[in-house]
Amino acid sequence: MWSLLLANVYLHHALDVWFEDTVKTHCKGKAYLCWYADDFVCAFECATDAERVYRVLGLRLKTYGLEIAEERTNRLRFSRQAWRRNGTFEFLGFEFRWGRGRRGQPALQRRTSRQKYRAALARLQSWCREHSRLRPAELFALLNAKLRGFYNYYGIRCNYKSLADFHYWVKRVLFRELNRRSQRRSYHWAGFADLLKAFPLERPRICHSF
């Protein structure tokens, strides 16, 4: 809580106020800032505006004792026009890119960041290994709570495939960890399927339409 509060205080003065009062007034086109905690994305209608702000951004933050994470900072084209030449970027655990919509038109697409996806699956595997000896009712209640948390955050429109893939691999991870409890296997696939009928895993779902 304190780190989030500190980030909000710092970025409000170092970034938010500066962007509204100075950057926007000197831009040739429209400019937009979106930030949360210590992550932010700036969007510009004109490439020259983006280049100018990129050059001075580090100096601006430095006056407040802050530094840009160079490995996470980049400039890229991200436009509906000529969308095939666009790059991709990550923000708040999502990967943003342009693709084709259902009718073939350019459409903004988002999916779970591959880094966040792999990290979440690794944490879940460690959790399953640690708690695999719990009684099934307790094990599945706790596991489903974790899955609901994952779906509640990443369950946005266009991201169902990532959720479904995550659900698929969670089942495989659980099957493997349940069979590692002793030298003798606890389940074959048919028996595991019966277990899932008795204690269903939380299904992926879209929770946010934006």
In short:
By secondary structure, the chain is an alpha+beta fold.
Polypeptide structure, described:
This protein is an alpha+beta fold and about 210 residues long. It has 2 domains: about 1-110, no CATH class; about 115-200. It has helices at about 1-25, 45-60, 115-130, 135-155, 160-180, 190-200, and strands spanning about 30-35, 40-45, 90, 95-100, 105-110. It has a 3-stranded antiparallel sheet. A two-stranded antiparallel ribbon has the order 1-2. Helix 1 crosses helix 2 and helix 3 (about 115-130) runs parallel beside helix 5 (about 160-180). The longest helix is centred in the first third of the chain and has 25 residues, at about 1-25. The two termini are about 25 Å apart.
